[in-house]
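Protein modeling request. Please complete all fields; requests missing the sequence field cannot be processed.
Requester role: graduate student
Desired output: 3D structure, C-alpha cell encoding
Chains: 1
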Amino acid sequence: MTTCSVCQTPLTLEIEPEEEEKQEEDEDQNVAGPSNSKSHQTVPDDVELACGCHYHWQCLLDAYQSPNCPTCTRLIISASPSGAEQVLCNLNNEGGLQTDLDILPVLAEESYLKSYPKERKCRAFLEFCREGDVEAIVELLKDTRQDDDEDDEEDDDNEEGDSMEFEGTTSPRVAIDILRYQDPLGSMYSGLHLAVIHNKPVIIWLLLFLASQVNLDLFPHEVLQAAEESDLTEQRKHRMGGVDIRALRDADGRTAVQHANGGSIGSDLIVLIAPPGE
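Delivered output (278 residues):
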C-alpha cells in the first residue's frame, strides 16, 4: 500500500459526520441502541507529484519549502504552455480524482505564510472579497478588532521604549490594516481591486463605507441600514484613519476603478470608486 512520504501512514483521511448527521446518529442510538452508530467516513487524501512521491495534502503544505520535492529532492516545477511556472499533481480526495492540477499558487501562499503568519487573516479577507462573502468579512473584522484591543492592552503593559515584533519579521510591531492589505503574491491587488474585477457590488459598497472618504449621503439607504444592523458604524470609526482605499494602486500602478468593465457594478458606483481628485 502506498503511504505518505512524510508521515508514512495510509493516504486517507477520516471525516467526522456533519452536525445534522450527528443529530440523526444520536436519534438512532436512542431508538435502536449503539449498534446503529455511524463510524467516521474515510476518504482519499493523496497528492501525487510529478516525481512519483505521494503526500497527504496537509503534510505536503507543511513540508514544502522549495521548487524541489521535499522527499526525493527532484525538481517539481515545470513550465506551462504560456511559459508560467507550475507544479502539476494528481489530486485524489473527497471530491474525486483531478489530474494535472496546478497547485503552485497554494504552495507559494503557504510558504509565504510560514514566514508571515500574521497575514493569514489578511489573505482570507482578500478571498472573501473575491467571493463576495459579506458575512465572512464582517465576522473577520470583528475578530480582528478584538485582537487589536487585546494587543493594545499588551502594549500598555510593556515598558516605554520597548517594541514587539511579528513572528517571521525583523521590523517593529505594526498592526496590519486588513481593509487596505495588498496581495504581494497577486499583483498587489487590494480587496477593492478584487471586488471590482469579480463584479461584487455589495463588497464594493462595504469597503467604501469602511475605508473611504465617500460622503455617506451618497450611499443607498439599504446599505446604511445593513451597516447599522451589522454594527459596522463603530468599525468605520475605528478604521477611517488610513489611506482612502480608492487610491491604492496595484503592481501595474492601476487603481481599482481602472479595472472596472461595467458588468453588474453600475455606472453610478464606478464613479464613486474613482480616487479622490480624479
